Amino acid sequence: MSLHVIMFSLLAILAIATGVLLVTRRNPVSAAVSLILHFFALSGLYLTLNAQFLAAVQILVYAGAIMVLVVFVIMLLNLGKEQNMRENFNPRTAITIAMSAALIMQLVLTFTGNPTGKNQLSAASEKIGSPAEIGNILYSTYIFPFEAISLLLLVAVVGSIILAKRTVDK
Q1: pLDDT tens digits for range 86-128
Q2: Are 153 and 159 within 8 A, CB to CB?
Q3: Is residue 124 included in any domain, yes or no?
Q4: In this predicted structure, what is the pLDDT of residue 85?
Q5: CA Rg, the chain, in Å?
Q6: If you average pLDDT over every residue of the chain, what do you get?
Q7: Residue 158 and residue 106 share a domain
Q8: Contact indicator for 3, 47 with CB cutoff of 8 Å
Q9: 40/21 Cα distance (integer angstroms)
Q10: Which of 48, 122, 133, 137 is the most buried (most CB within 10 A)?
Q11: Is residue 14 in a domain?
Q12: Residue at 135 is within a domain
């Protein structure tokens, strides 16, 4: 088993574990921290799939900007109630742990089996995540949707400026 497969497996297990933590936490702040860790695990998975640009965007956009906004809203609305970080053990937790263990065992059995070589990446698929290839596809095949979204964002920015200026003038 190669280092590439081991890293992919570990990051996949981390992504699954943080996803389970995300949906089982009652405290919104600890759920948000789990979501940040999940985004970093997904970024690592993108790196193992040779998509460096997508990994960087995942960290910058989701783990950076979006999660700062989510944590800011949680703190502003005071959604987190006072409770211990250690939560009670219930039957749902036991079922979740059992299902996670079964999934991990299945992954181990899958990756330690006899490799056939049929899942090797082709040369064309290796350049899919590169910034040059994304830009080439974005500005050739998907030029109309790209321009439509850019105009929509421009209208949203101008509209928000007009609304903000109108409330200041009153």
Answers
A1: 556 678 878 888 888 888 888 777 767 655 556 566 666 666 7
A2: no
A3: no
A4: 45
A5: 22
A6: 81
A7: no
A8: no
A9: 14
A10: 48
A11: yes
A12: yes
Cβ distance 25 to 5 under 8 Å? no
Cα separation, 120 vs 154, in Å, equals: 43
Residues 104 and 137 in one domain: no
> Which band of pLDDT confidence, cut at 50, 70 and 90, is reported for residue 74?
confident
Instruction: Please give the backbone phi and psi of residue 51, each rounded to the nearest 5 degrees, phi first.
Output: -120, 75
Q: Cβ neighbours of residue 1 under 8 Å, at least 6 residues apart? A: 111, 112
Which CATH number goes with the domain that contains 39?
1.20.120.1200
The answer on 106 and 134 residing in a single domain is no
**C-beta of residue 47 within 8 angstroms of C-beta of residue 24:** no
Give the integer Cα–Cα distance in Å for 108 and 13: 11
Residues 6 or more apart whose Cβ sits within 8 Å of residue 39: 58, 59, 62, 63, 67
What pLDDT band is residue 161 in, cutting at 50, 70 and 90? confident
Is the domain of 150 the same as that of 105? no
Residues 76 and 155 in one domain: no
Domain span holding position 8: 1-114
pLDDT of residue 80: 53
Task: Provide the 10 A C-beta neighbour count for residue 2.
Answer: 9
> pTM for this structure?
0.58
